[in-house]
Write a structure and sequence with these properties.
This protein has seven helices and 14 strands. It is of the alpha/beta class. The chain is globular and about 55 Å long.
């Protein structure tokens, strides 16, 4: 059975108990896939008993620090460990262009014996293909997060046909219904409705209801001097299905 491991659940203001939002997809036959990069994703993956060489695919949803800041350290970490396996990084042009610029500022071209890495750019349109391996088929949907090009993910488990939808950071808008339609699991942000780039837990429940999602998982919520537990009841006010509050190191079967 495929698994989702939550490596971080907080919004852009994290604390000692909650890392920035990112998670790991673990399939039955192929290598794991990292979705975004928090403070130290490689250390957390090691704690799961997964060797860094087996991580060969990384999907970055958008170029904001809480989603990509872990990339330079992770790449340096892998290089210092003597990694030889290739790494493939997927994202929108806006994001990957800036990742490459960032790494150039660190002078990575001069790091000797650096492992092979490729940047796979994703088209910014609905249902755009990102990647496919033996376990998953992953497609992108544009979402609305301030003025930063950002993509949500629709992930199909090829073994059982189940669908995971991940909104990433976004304000609520009708297009999220297409992203989440009929999803067995909807992971929806709940940072709070600011009218510009984030959603409330109640809005997450509304999208889950309209899309006919089976289960709703809240993520990317406020933790600094804040109690996120009431978000569950807030989402339940607009969604009759099961609601879960994602926490760091939670594991879900998919």
């Amino acid at each position: 059975m495929a698994r989702i491991v939550i490596l971080g659940s907080a919004n852009a203001v994290n604390d000692a108990q909650h890392d920035y939002t990112h998670f790991l997809l673990i399939g039955e036959k192929d290598t794991p896939i990292l979705i975004d990069a928090g403070s130290n994703p490689l250390g957390k993956i090691k704690n799961l008993g997964i060797d860094d060489e087996s991580l060969q695919d990384v999907i970055l949803t958008h170029f904001h620090p809480d989603h990509v800041a872990g990339i330079p350290n992770m790449m340096m970490h892998m290089w210092l460990l003597g990694r030889k396996a290739p790494l493939r990084m997927y994202g929108l042009h806006h994001c990957l262009n800036r990742i490459e610029d960032t790494m150039e500022m660190y002078g990575w071209q001069e790091w000797p014996n650096f492992f092979p890495i490729s940047f796979q750019r994703v088209n910014q349109r609905e249902n755009a293909p990102i990647m496919e391996n033996k376990d998953f088929r992953i497609r992108a949907f544009p979402v609305r997060h301030y003025d930063i090009p950002t993509m949500g993910l629709r992930i199909e488990n090829k073994h059982n046909g189940k669908i995971l939808a991940y909104t990433c950071d976004t304000m609520s808008f009708p297009g999220l219904v297409d992203l989440a339609r009929g999803a067995d699991m909807l992971i929806h942000e709940a940072a709070g409705n600011d009218g510009l780039g984030h959603s409330s837990a109640a809005q997450a429940g509304e999208i889950a209801t309209e899309a006919g999602a089976k289960k709703l998982f809240l993520i990317h919520y406020a933790v600094w001097n804040a109690d996120p537990e009431p978000l569950v009841a807030e989402a339940e006010s607009t969604f009759d299905g099961s609601v879960h509050l994602c926490k760091d190191y939670d594991e879900y079967e998919f």
